[in-house]
Amino acid sequence: MSRLNKSDGCNIRSHLMWLIVGLLLLTFATDGICALEKGSKAPSFTLSKIDGGEVSLKNYQDQLVLLYFWDFSEELFGKYLPELEAFYQKIKNSDATLLLIALEDTPEINQIVKSQNLTFPILIDPEKETIKVYPGEGSPFGYIIDHGLIKDYAVGGDALSLQESILASLSYATIDGIWVLKKETNAPPFTLSKIDGGEVSLKDYKDQPVLLYFWDFSEEAFLPELEAFYQKIKNSGASLLLITPEYTPEVKKIVESKGLTFPILLDPTGEIIKAYNPGKKCPLGYIIQYGFIKDYAIGGDTLSLKEIIMTSLSFATLKVKTEPQAKITILDDQNKILSETKGPLFSDRFSPKKKVKVCVEGSKDSKKDSYIWKEKSRWESDLFVLKPNETKLLEVDINKHLIQGQICVSAFDREKKKLVLLNSEEEFTFITALGIPTHEIVEEDGSYTLTLPPGFYEGISIEKEGYKVAKTENSRNISLDSGEKEKVVFFLEDDPSYWETKAASLKEILPKDDKVYYNLGRVYWKEGERTGGRKYFAKSYGYFLKLIKSEPENLKYNRNAYQVAEKLWHLSDMENQKYADDLAHFRQIIDRIEKKR
After folding, report:
1. What is the SS3 assignment for 49?
2. Shortest CA distance to 267 belongs to which of 219, 316, 202, 173?
3. In angstroms, how far is CA 79 from the centroid of its own chain?
């Protein structure tokens, strides 16, 4: 049914549209038919759908639109409506769509739509406004609109060929009539749940090749082959993912009986399956790399994709040799376990790009100093990256790497109030133990922790300024097992003779160095605070003045002298001008040194 007259009316309409619409609606002739010029802006419209609601062209500015003008009364083209529906089902999950504007608004249209189960949008234009701005001839005629611009036009039987043009522009290709995503097109992103919990996102694999399968589990025979392939590649910079629509009891039984460990993802809504597998063919496989489709295959040919993955990978071999009882664990830089086994020999292939480290753990019964314990051993390498085609062999003697234990030493006063232990020259706090080799001491929350190899330790003692040991709550003889933490608690009380004894011992080594003078200054200061005696503060002050004489700009010496001078000034009821002048002098020096810093 013709909507426009062919002849001079073509030129008249062209001139009218030039005057009304301007440069946006230029026309060209196709076999003598007036149509919008390719590359011109597609006129906008908003029309009602036959099943309710509205459709606006501006909603498809970022898509490819096949816009048909269709006369439902034409019996010749009525038979093509199922073909349009099939075409719409192919493209509706893509970045293209189909819109059909009915040239007649009759009750029969609804009847035809229902009888043929048409789901694509059919629009009604009772005022024929779109016909005025989208010129065409006969029925059907159609336009392809690409991102808001006219891309193509055809009429009659040729209008149906516009479908092929749309499909050629999309991301789909066909294998034996089955639609698949084209090579080098973007792989649709997804985040899906795994059957065993957690989620998997395609973006997690952006830097490695992924073999993506769509499987309905009817092909059970090939599943062990997929599992064997996954075990080969899982540490080698590639991965295998399988997507299935539902996790039925039958599927669960198959997964458990076949011992499948590769990620199986659920797509209950079917959206991802439609995007990748519009032809609903299983099995279907893709190779995805850097977010693009690199290859695809259907049916039995999907297994050949495994070989393509294998040939694209570069492997490195890691071997670890140790005692039979050892446990060998391979970890990545996030401490994720890549592989785990028992000695004496481990061998596996890894991606040269992957950072890995090796952890070996073991234990054996030993006897030492009449005490038997279970020696635990642990050795861990630094992170390293294997070279392509390299075979790296690590030989680990686990018995040389014992797990160390810890002795935690803390102190309390008579009222069981915890005393802070400071390991510094000012506080003269020491912990010693007979038979302890070189060890690491860590202070935490007022306690000392000594990290030591397993063994027997005795005679653990403590010295804290101004105190003496009254008793211990537990034995100071420790049988330390590997990996264990033993506690030693001391109860301390004031020692009136401590500072005099300490001063006497320091005087015995005078004159030696500044450190001795400094310690004497601290000792007499502490004794002055304990007894309230002015003479002890005066002795302390004298030693700090000697230090300042040798190092006038030493911040620590000046601060200590300032604090002791302040004590002496207060003891003189703030009447001794000498100490007041000294305080001002030290304050000036301290401020000057701190400003320099």
Report:
1. strand
2. 202
3. 54
Based on its alpha-carbon atoms, the radius of gyration of the chain, rounded to whole angstroms, reads 43
Mapping DSSP onto H, E and C, the string for 332-354 reads ECCCCEEEEEECCEEEEEECCCC
Q: Decide the pairing of beta strands 467-472 and 485-494.
A: antiparallel
Contact of 210 with 238, CB cutoff 8 Å: yes
* Whole-number Å distance between alpha carbons of 472 and 249: 64
511 cis-preceded (ω within 30 degrees of 0): yes
User: In this structure, are residues 465 and 526 in contact, taking their beta carbons and an 8 Å threshold?
Assistant: yes
- 482-532: pLDDT as tens digits: 778 888 899 999 888 888 888 887 777 766 677 888 888 888 888 888 888
Strands 391-395 and 172-175: unpaired
Question: Are 142 and 153 within 8 A, CB to CB?
Answer: yes
> Quick check: 283 pLDDT over 70?
yes
> Are the C-beta atoms of 509 and 518 separated by less than 8 Å?
no
Of the candidates 125, 115, 129, which has an alpha carbon nearest to the alpha carbon of residue 54? 125
What is the distance between the alpha carbons of residues 549 and 584, in angstroms, rounded to a whole number?
17
- Cβ-count burial of 122 within 10 angstroms (0-12 exposed, 13-18 middle, 19+ buried)? buried
Spatial distance between the Cα atoms of 207 and 209, rounded to a whole number of angstroms: 7
pLDDT tens per residue, range 345-387: 998 888 887 789 999 988 765 554 444 456 678 888 999 988 8
| pTM (2 d.p.) | 0.43
- Cα–Cα distance between 104 and 109 in angstroms, integer? 8
Quick count: other Cβ atoms within 10 Å of Cβ 173?
16
β-sheet bridge partners, residue 478: 457
- Give 214's DSSP letter: E
